[in-house]
Amino acid sequence: MLIDSYRFLPRSFQPMYANAQPVEGETEAVWAPFEKRLADARIALVTSAGLSLSGEQDPFDLARERSEPTWGDPSFRVLPHALAGRELAMSHLHVNNTDVLADHNIALPTDVLDDVVADGAVASAAPRHFSVMGYQESGVRAWREETGPAIVELLRDDRVDGVVLAPV
Amino acid sequence: MPVLARRIEGAGIATVVATMMPQTAVELMAPRVVGVEFPFGHPFGMPGDRVMQRAVLDSALRVLAGASAFGTRVDVDLEWPQPRGEAYKSWQPPEPSPIVARLLAGRGGT
Fold this sequence. Notes:
The complex is a heterodimer of chains A (168) and B (110). Chain A is α/β, with parallel strands linked by helices.
């Protein structure tokens, strides 16, 4: 089956998403074979929910986005896999934040990944995951040149075999 | 998000993008894509619904490990449990985002 991506969206959103064009320099296929069995693999998560650790990390810069509507904060936050007892803040002006703050697993499924690991389907969860803020127009360049390479370095340090990324 | 997936994939680490907009992710050249027919803000499903969240994560992991070629897209056959009208309203932010507010203002809307 093919899903209907516009089922829950205002009709005015269709032109913003239809026939998306890759940015310059991102038009070629890129492929890393997944060579292990999942049961031997370590998995990391990336969310675009704009999550940060409340009181421990700076939130994403929403003030600048409010004054420059085509700008989105291109930085990232490192989140520990163990989030029990930590409070998350969400910086995202494009969705209602209530449900993610009620259960972060709908955007960053750390507890669900624990269940998968407990069942033996995956060997381990990475010790840290990553959050960016999804809304990027002028910030895409910084994602390519700074945020992406910085996240890659940390994934390599953690010996991650595969990454599940979820835009919100 | 496909841009970040491509950076990570290009460094030799396999990726999958789980998204409400799978066609867009394919067009933006994400290597592996899993689609869900859910409202924005909910890529793994309903808060508190661990069965639904697990079904999406399991699908993403299967595609991550099992896809054999660039551009693989698999959509998840799960129906959003809320009525459409309710879900249409509840994902939207309390006030329009800055870019949507600008577009609406440019159009003479409110």
